[in-house]
Design goal:
7 helices, 2 domains, four-stranded antiparallel sheet, Alpha-Beta Plaits, alpha+beta
Length: 219
């Protein structure tokens, strides 16, 4: 099937190609508005402070690569069950599994960025700050780190960070268009009726030497 044939099919079934994407977009848009709750993201940043070596004036792991290894370890520790449990206990929560935790550790510094996303803006901020406190105490006891100091405390965001309803609606529209075109092409492929002289040539292997036009009814 050529592009021209495909365009002819789409033109022939233009109603389906237009209506189905619109229906999909409307349904997904309504679902995202009425059934998908707003989510809020609270962000905080922290600095990993390594203990000083008493035998010298330089700090332990003073070189950049070693410092980055410590920061990576702390970033990994932030995602551990121990930090999650200690944070939940300190906030009086049964669990923080309903909140998404994202950790970003820079490759050129000891600064770690922590983002917590959930349905409650205030709880997301409390969890982010609680995780900083928890990872600081745990890292000090198990990693020989002096502390993990908060640079910017997380505050409750005033506006939601998601869901991206416009993106979902646009994707649903495109998906609906793809499905409509697929239906049109599949229906045409399964249609075994002889529709024109090209079908006759394909079936018989003989060239068509003439065509008899359909006579219009005389007025």
């Amino acid at each position: 099937m050529t592009i021209l044939d495909l365009l002819r099919l789409i033109r022939k079934h233009i109603a389906l190609v237009i209506v189905l994407p619109i229906v999909c977009a409307v349904l997904v848009g309504l679902y995202s508005v009425f059934l998908m709750p707003d989510k809020y993201t609270a962000t905080t940043s922290m600095y990993v402070l390594v203990k000083q070596d008493s035998s010298s004036n330089s700090t332990m792991y003073s070189d950049l690569s070693a410092s980055q290894m410590v920061s990576n370890d702390v970033a990994t520790l932030l995602k551990s069950d121990r930090v999650a449990k200690q944070t939940a206990d300190s906030l009086g929560l049964s669990s923080i599994s309903d909140y998404d935790v994202s950790v970003d550790s820079s490759t050129t510094s000891r600064v770690i960025t922590l983002s917590v996303t959930g349905t409650s803006a205030s709880t997301a901020a409390d969890i982010a700050n609680g995780m900083v406190d928890a990872v600081s105490s745990i890292a000090s006891s198990v990693m020989n780190v002096e502390g993990v100091n908060s640079i910017d405390e997380a505050v409750a965001p005033s506006s939601p960070s998601g869901p991206n309803r416009v993106l979902y609606t646009a994707v649903a529209f495109l998906a609906g268009m793809f499905v409509a075109i697929a239906i049109v092409v599949l229906a045409d492929t399964l249609n075994t009726k002889v529709r024109d002289h090209e079908d006759v040539e394909a079936l018989t292997g003989l060239p068509v030497v003439g065509r008899i036009p359909v006579a219009k009814e005389a007025r």
